[in-house]
Design goal:
single chain, alpha+beta, 3-stranded antiparallel beta sheet, 13 strands, 37% helix, elongated, disordered N terminus
């Protein structure tokens, strides 16, 4: 009931003012005094509401009649009293004109000109109404923008960038070490003088030569900074970062195993150490030589050096170009686009890697010719005690691995360039 008091008080003030204008008419004072008492009673419960409105209307008419008799202009006062009656009616039914924005229809009904709209009205009438903002999902801060109330559906983790296939470790022999370098005696020459001999004759002597190469363990590492808060608030993020850092190491490792320069802190990669392609024979078959023919001759070069090749390494785009080769009738020389056969060429698995430069190729005996020695497998460490991390609430995530690549026999790998080989 307390929410009626502001309107009731306003009504009382209007009545008292009217009494003052009328020159202290004692009967009007009595009416106003009684009306004020009714307001006080109404504040105590809803039962007095109907009585309050009845007395207000009665006193309203009585006060206006006395004011007119006294010669006071009552037009504006009557409109104000009518407005008070309307507000009291709204409060009675639970509404509040001050809190609820009128619709366009409500604004028309409340317009004085609308009183002329009845069954006898003819013609045209115009009403000015205030535009009511439409609630939308926008978030620009304009009227009606309610987008801030819509909670987004945040998914766990993050959308990762594409990751290329890492293949070189798969074709080389695995191993491990607990030292910072690998020494392995290697035979560099052999003279085989074995022969048949006559009884009591001098036996022929054979010789072998060795060297002692050393392959150092190299370190691959990278790190990133992150705030302590984001790692605490998004627990899944740390594991995703760990996986991403491990991929960065593996990606760099793949390039080092193939193309490492062997200088500074680089590994010596198998492509860098490989023997250059040199056709071991001139094809006698009629027709032009293509990329498939070049790879067969590289296989023959290895076999001629007493190695059994076990893989072919190509750039993915060069492998796709080979799959497109067709015969004179327009048919694929391979099994075509609907084949479920593994990537094989001349019975050897084809390893496609973007670490291989376009238009380059390599054929190798990977398990026999090279071996990886892991000193420390890829690990990710988190530390707050790096630089000024402690003062900035930052953490350093460090990914690191250590390994050595031993090229046992450089001539167990053959490398070449398709364009140069086709031109020769």
């Amino acid at each position: 009931m307390k929410r009626y008091l502001p309107v009731m008080a306003l009504a009382a003030i209007v009545l008292i003012a009217a009494v003052a204008v009328m020159g202290f008419d004692y009967s009007a004072v009595a009416h106003a005094h009684g009306f004020a008492g009714t307001i006080a009673d109404a504040a105590g419960g809803a039962a007095a509401t109907e009585e309050l409105m009845r007395q207000f209307k009665a006193h309203n008419s009585d006060v206006l009649t006395k004011l007119e008799a006294a010669g006071v202009e009552t037009k504006g006062l009557a409109a104000r009293m009518t407005e008070i009656e309307q507000r009291m009616t709204q409060l009675k039914h639970g509404g509040s004109a001050d809190l609820v924005a009128d619709s366009w229809g409500a604004q028309v009904i409340r317009n004085d000109a609308a009183k002329a709209l009845n069954s006898t009205f003819k013609g045209r009438m115009r009403f000015d109404v205030k535009t009511t903002a439409t609630l939308t999902s926008a978030s620009g801060g304009a009227a009606g923008d309610a987008g801030a109330l819509v909670r987004p559906d945040r998914q766990a983790g993050f959308i990762e960038l594409a990751r290329r296939k890492l293949r070189m470790r798969d074709v080389l022999a695995p191993g491990s070490t607990t030292s910072n370098s690998i020494e392995w005696p290697r035979q560099t020459a052999r003279s085989n003088n074995a022969a048949t001999v006559a009884e009591a004759a001098l036996k022929p002597q054979s010789d072998m030569t060795f060297d002692m190469p050393t392959w150092p363990v190299r370190t691959l590492a990278t790190w990133i900074l992150a705030s302590r808060q984001i790692l605490d608030d998004a627990a899944a993020l740390q594991s995703a970062i760990d996986a991403e850092l491990r991929f960065m190491l593996a990606d760099t490792e793949d390039g080092q195993l193939l193309n490492g320069a062997g200088t500074g802190t680089d590994l010596l990669g198998v492509y860098t150490a490989a023997t250059a392609f040199s056709a071991p024979f001139v094809p006698t078959a009629a027709g032009s030589v293509n990329q498939i023919d070049i790879l067969l001759m590289a296989i023959a070069q290895l076999q001629n050096a007493d190695y059994d090749p076990d893989f072919i390494a190509l750039n993915p785009l060069d492998w796709a170009d080979i799959l497109l080769v067709k015969d004179d009738q327009g048919k694929y020389v391979g099994d075509g686009p609907f084949s479920q056969q593994a990537a094989l060429l001349w019975t050897l698995p084809v390893v496609t890697t973007k670490s291989m430069t376009r238009r380059k190729f390599m054929v190798g005996s990977g398990k026999r010719g090279a071996q990886i020695f892991d000193r420390q497998e890829a690990t990710v460490e988190v530390s707050t005690e790096d630089s000024d991390n402690f003062r900035k609430n930052l953490v350093t995530l460090l990914a690191e691995e250590r390994l050595a690549l031993v090229i046992k026999r450089a001539d167990s790998f053959v490398k070449g360039d398709f364009d140069a080989a086709l031109a020769s």
